[in-house]
């Protein structure tokens, strides 16, 4: 398949610019991949779509205040988007400026603190703090790294709403957005009906928003993201299988985490980077159902969803979502999908 096969027309006004007042108030488009049938529901209906034997797997990453504004010593302005904390004083980052900073140049933060350009790593800059740990600088000067399609500056409310309520491990520069719909009451409802919960970690990188530039998908170079799947999660998946339950992934990042850990054919504990590119033709080893938001046209995330629930059913569901004016992308509505019998079609 080609990149252009995953295009769809989206009116700009359907791109959610702010979250709803209540996390769990979103709409939910339910797609049965086996039959191709979809139905309009509400996120509040999620417990009715699950079975007490199911295992719900979340990504527990937390979003860093990863966007910094600085000035070059020559006077120009620079915008820094931290991609990864390498160690206490070193990061890799995207840097946007009128002229690309050279190695050895210094970027001055609003408080006078300095980040030195120490070189390049792949397409990223390596920045080193001269005075203190990067985490402290992010806390003091960092902004919530809202996606590029949210056309407004971040504000104080984004610090809380562009974050899941269960996130516990700092490291992401983009939210695992399917998890944004869960509030404490929903998690309590799911526990009350007996749905077990597990947590993996994948620190979402800014590369998640990078477009696929090659029309031939086999030539696309996937960005690397760090993840961890524990022995405990592997045991929970095995127990769910033994009791006849499904493994339900909350978000594409959870899907990629579990499928990376099962790359050998069997789910095993894993800690490290993944460049797994899931597209139609991929054979899923772990996931039976998934919850996800709506994704950008021609994106790797849309390709993943099509691989899981079938290309034709997913694209038809997206056309329906546009017609019914669902809210799209990070602060938008959600989908619940089950696996297609023949996802290549």
TrEMBL record:
<keyword id="KW-0671">Queuosine biosynthesis</keyword>
<dbReference type="InterPro" id="IPR042118">
    <property type="entry name" value="QueA_dom1"/>
</dbReference>
<keyword id="KW-0949">S-adenosyl-L-methionine</keyword>
<dbReference type="Pfam" id="PF02547">
    <property type="entry name" value="Queuosine_synth"/>
</dbReference>
<keyword id="KW-0472">Membrane</keyword>
<dbReference type="InterPro" id="IPR003699">
    <property type="entry name" value="QueA"/>
</dbReference>
<feature type="transmembrane region" description="Helical">
    <location>
        <begin position="300"/>
        <end position="318"/>
    </location>
</feature>
<keyword id="KW-0808">Transferase</keyword>
<comment type="similarity">
    <text>Belongs to the QueA family.</text>
</comment>
<keyword id="KW-0963">Cytoplasm</keyword>
<comment type="subunit">
    <text>Monomer.</text>
</comment>
<comment type="function">
    <text>Transfers and isomerizes the ribose moiety from AdoMet to the 7-aminomethyl group of 7-deazaguanine (preQ1-tRNA) to give epoxyqueuosine (oQ-tRNA).</text>
</comment>
<dbReference type="InterPro" id="IPR036100">
    <property type="entry name" value="QueA_sf"/>
</dbReference>
<keyword id="KW-1133">Transmembrane helix</keyword>
<protein>
    <recommendedName>
        <fullName>S-adenosylmethionine:tRNA ribosyltransferase-isomerase</fullName>
        <ecNumber>2.4.99.17</ecNumber>
    </recommendedName>
</protein>
<comment type="pathway">
    <text>tRNA modification; tRNA-queuosine biosynthesis.</text>
</comment>
<keyword id="KW-0812">Transmembrane</keyword>
<dbReference type="InterPro" id="IPR042119">
    <property type="entry name" value="QueA_dom2"/>
</dbReference>
